[in-house]
Amino acid sequence: ISAARADLVQAAQLALALNNTSRALALWQRVANRFGDDQECALAIANLLEREERWLELRDHLHEYSQSVDDADRRTVLLRAASVELTKMQDPLAAVGSYAKARAWTEALSVVEAIPKVVDRAKVAHGLIELADAAWKAGDAQAEAVSFQATLIYTRCALPSIESMRDTTADLAQSTKLLRRVTQARDRLVAAAQRPYGRERRRALVLESARVTSSWLREPIEAIRLFGTLFAEDPIDAAAEQSFTEYSELLQTQNRWTERS
Predict the structure, then answer these.
(1) Which residues contact 105 (CB under 8 A, 6 or more apart)?
(2) pTM of the model
(3) CA pair distance 213, 226, nearest whole angstrom
(4) Which helix (H) or strand (E) holds 20?
(5) What is the DSSP letter of 52?
(6) What band does 161 get if pLDDT is binned at 50, 70 and 90?
(7) How far apart are CA 33 and CA 9, in angstroms?
(8) What is the pLDDT of residues 183-201, one digit of tens each?
């Protein structure tokens, strides 16, 4: 068997030396089919698929190969698959999935943050939340922070820019649409704060939802309620300190002097 394999490998190397990439690829695939897809064979096939710019086949090949190697090699293979998906296939959602499988959370978040279109960013952020939550439940402690950051990205995608709000104030229909988006963002933040995040992250979400309610939605009563939940739980931590001035001013505007004192 070793001699037959060696003959095929030699033929594949010769084909490549003659710049016959297709022939070389076909021979390496014969090696894989007859003798198994070991590291030498798998990497040769991957390199030849990349050389021929057969991106879909390369992605599928890398994912299949990643299932047969140890954790260190699996991460390397999946990072390569993610790079192909992101830069060659322009599929950030698939890339985020590969980064998540590799537990490359920083890279996954970077992909989401770099997506220019808000709608696309929200879609990929939502996908990352689901992947991070699954990893978190499976015992990956790092995934909690990723889920939290992706949640913030996802909810902020619903917030229009200040310029958009200012430019459309004369257009009732557009203003109503923007207001609905902001309300949706606030509701997402409130719901996210009920998830089993660590205390600091959960309170950060409550603080953000209170600020959106106060500054964007101009709903002082609801904003006071949200700020109040922070102070009721802990009146002296970082979240409470950051919100003290705004909370105090809101109470003053509503003549709620007892609570302000």
Answers:
(1) 99, 132, 142, 143, 145, 146
(2) 0.81
(3) 9
(4) none
(5) T
(6) low
(7) 13
(8) 888 998 999 999 999 999 9
Q: Tokens 């590291």 identify what position?
A: 39
Lookup: tokens for 3: 């001699």
- Angstrom distance (rounded) from CA 143 to CA 138: 10
Check residues 34 and 172 and name the one with the higher pLDDT. 34
What is the three-class DSSP state of 181? helix
Structure tokens at 84: 């192909």
Q: Distance (Å, rounded) from C-alpha 178 to C-alpha 209?
A: 17
Q: Give the count of beta carbons closer than 10 Å to the beta carbon of residue 180.
A: 11
pLDDT score at 155: 87
Give the 3-state secondary structure of residue 67: coil
Q: What is the residue-averaged pLDDT of the chain?
A: 90
Q: What does the pLDDT look like over 51-82, one tens digit per residue?
A: 999 999 999 999 999 999 999 899 999 999 99
pLDDT value of position 110: 97
Q: In whole angstroms, give the CA distance from residue 41 to residue 47.
A: 10
pLDDT score for 113: 96
Q: Is there a contact between 63 and 82 (Cβ–Cβ < 8 Å)?
A: no
The amino acid that residue 2 corresponds to is S
Cα distances from 197 to residues 97, 147, 185, 193, 231, in angstroms, run 22, 9, 19, 8, 19
CB atoms within 10 A of CB 214: 21
Helix ranges (H only) for the chain are 2-17, 21-35, 39-51, 55-66, 71-83, 92-101, 105-114, 118-137, 142-156, 162-167, 172-192, 199-211, 220-233, 238-253, 257-260
DSSP three-state, residue 215? helix
